[in-house]
Structures are given as C-alpha cells and as structure tokens.
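Dear support,

We are seeing what looks like truncated structure output for some complexes. This example has four components. We would appreciate it if you could run it in full and send us the complete token output so we can diff it against ours.
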Amino acid sequence: MSNTEDALLLDAAPSAPDEAGQHQAVNHGYTSNKDAYLRRLKRIEGQVRGIARMVEDDKYCIDILTQVAAVNKALHAVSLGLVEEHIGHCVVGAAAEPDASVRADAIDAKVKEATDAIGRLLR
Amino acid sequence: MSNTEDALLLDAAPSAPDEAGQHQAVNHGYTSNKDAYLRRLKRIEGQVRGIARMVEDDKYCIDILTQVAAVNKALHAVSLGLVEEHIGHCVVGAAAEPDASVRADAIDAKVKEATDAIGRLLR
Amino acid sequence: MSNTEDALLLDAAPSAPDEAGQHQAVNHGYTSNKDAYLRRLKRIEGQVRGIARMVEDDKYCIDILTQVAAVNKALHAVSLGLVEEHIGHCVVGAAAEPDASVRADAIDAKVKEATDAIGRLLR
Amino acid sequence: MSNTEDALLLDAAPSAPDEAGQHQAVNHGYTSNKDAYLRRLKRIEGQVRGIARMVEDDKYCIDILTQVAAVNKALHAVSLGLVEEHIGHCVVGAAAEPDASVRADAIDAKVKEATDAIGRLLR
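Here is the complete output from our reference environment:
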C-alpha cells in the first residue's frame, strides 16, 4: 500500500519543536501511554481498512454500519483517554504555574482549549 | 505495512455469497457509489494513520483531539450515506414485495434492522 | 402524578388538519403509540425541571452532568422510536404510491428527509 | 404546577450540605452563572413541553425530530458549560491543595470524575 494518500492529510514532519507556551514540556499527558495509543490507533486503522474491504466485497449495508459504529466507539475511547491526560497534565500544569500574575490566565486558556476540544467531540 | 492486523479484525473472505433473504439482490444500495465510498474510506484510513503519527511525534494533545473529531465527522458522513441507501433500497425493496402475505413482516424486519443500526450510531 | 401539568398538554387544539402533501394521512407512524410518547416526554420534562432544581440547590456539577446525560439518552430513545415509525409509515407509504410516474420521486424525497433528520440527531 | 412528578425523578432536598471532600466549597464552578443556567434549563423544559404538544397535535414526525435535535443541541451547550466550569474550579481547586501528600490523589480523583462525566455525554 502506498503512502501517498497520507501525505495529503497531515504533514509528518518529524517531531518539530513545540510552540512556546503551548504546553509545559515535550512530555505530554499521553506520553507514558504512547505505545498503548499507537496499538489502539493501528487497530482502528485496520478496522477502517476492513470496512473498505466490506464495501469492495458488496457486504450487507447493515453489517457495514455495525463496523462503522464499532470504529466510532473505539475513537471515543481514544479521545476520552487523551482528554483525561490533557486535563491531568496541561490544565493541572497551568495551575502549578508559580507566577501568580499569569496563573489565572494560563488556567483559563487551558480549560477553554480542553472544553472546545470536548465540544468538537460531542458534535 | 503488513496485512496481519487486518486479519484479526474482519474475515476478508472474497465476496462470499450473501445469506438468503438478507437482501433483495447482490446490488446493494451503495453499489452505484462504491468507488466514492472506497475513496472516502481510504481517506479516513489515512487520517487515522496520521493521528498515529501525531502521537508518535509527540504532537499536542488538543491537536490530536481535533483530528479525532474530524475522523468522527467523516465516519458520520459515510454512515449517513449508507443509511440513506439502505432505506432507499432495502426497506423500499421490502415494500415492493409482491406477495402481500409476507410483505408487512419483510418491511418490519428491514425497518427494525435500520433503526437498530441508527441506534448504534447514536450511542 | 397530578393532573395539573397534563392539563397543559390536553388543552392543545385537537388534531389540526395536516398540510397538504406532507404525508399520506393524518395517521402518522407514531399515532398508535401517542400515549406512550406523551408519557416519555412528560418524564423528560420532569427530568429537565429536576436538573434546574439541582442548579438552584447548588448540587455538585458532576451529579448534574449525570442527569443531563440521562436526559440525552431518554431523548435518543424517543428519536429512534420516531425514526422507526417514520421509515415504516412515511417511506413505506411513498413506496406504495400506485402512480408509478411519481413513486420514485416520492420515495427519494421521503428517504432524503429521513436521512437529513437522522443526520441532525447524529451531530 | 404540582411538584409531585418531580419527586419521582430527583430528590429535591433543599440545599443539603455537600459531602465532605467532594468539592472545595459550596461555591461551585457554575454558581456565578446560576441565573443563566436556570434560564437555559427553563427554556429547554419549554422546548420539551412543545415537543409533547406536537405529538398531541399529530404534527409531522420529521418536524418533531428537528425539535428533538434542537433540545439535544441545547443540552450539549449546557453540559459543555458545566464541564468547563468543573475543570476550571474543581480540578484546578484540587491542584491548589497545599498538602502535597494528598494533592496528586485529589487531582487524579477529580480528573477521573470529569472524564467519566464527559464519557457519559459522548455515549
């Protein structure tokens, strides 16, 4: 399978330096579970490929829909894990900001960002 | 990339004959749009692979969540297309059943099946 | 359960004439289950009022969110019931249109309408 | 309007003292916006009552589904507001716990609780 279609979607520049202030460290919330996330995403990728094969093979539409629902559910689980780790690391990290003059704004920014991300998942 | 993980998820038997009575014909609702569905699923597969690459590259969790929400949305669009074609073909096909003695039951079965599938998408 | 709040609903104008062409008959899909739908909606209305009282009483935010999720779930069940009955009556009704020259368009219109409604629920 | 049907759903004990340790103060995240939440919930309650009236009046099923989708959307907005304020107050409050020996556990408990609540909304 070619990699060309990947290039359309996301620039895969290897580990660009993070924007200043975007988070506390290169160590994200999910870093300690990175392998688990990669395994789950690899599995989801295989599920999507399986759905394409079902379409290719003219499988029954309801069976395809069942598989699509399973992928949705798996993605929800990944999202929730990321949300949990984001709140636990990035929001709590902002709350630990020693400079009280910027702390409240840092917290507000992180909380707003997390809520917006959750809102996109709810839609 | 190996195909081994696909095998874990879905039996990929090439075009098995459909179970008797499951639908009216090998021509499913989505058959006429098969290529469009395959392109969309291929694109979604690439998006999931892109998310894995973001995790690999320690990208910011919120940016990953944004991509997950985009995949959810793309899957919703695929689901809705399949639902539309299922209702238009399989349900309407049951309604065209000439034998009036089995028609009502055939319709009920198809409608129930469609609603259950939609319910799994809503969850 | 008291009769007072029911009175709000029962004083509604009885069965106004339906818009021409909007559906096959005054008998909608849900008509036979009308009482059950009214009971479920009355219950949901009470749940929403209960949530307001929790806010009024400064209850814990997570407990309020749990009740909001319960209302979402109850509304999903109502939606699915309506979708099922819409497909079974309005779509199938269009499929039973005797005039073959307008039948296909009638079916398409009903299926499109149902799918759009499902799409609004998925979002 | 009687309170009897409310009692079925939620215990309406007036402002019971909060369980120890459940949050930092009687002042919840949403307290400052309490009136706005009450107005929104009152409006949602009216929307649900309006849906019941549509069923009573035999309105077209698709139009009812459109209203149900509108209530879902309004409830999502309320949920997101509560989530934002929960994270900003309860989670951040735990992060401000001066006793370092209990802080990490307090944060974990709040983050877990928030994520579980978000998970219930996503389903």
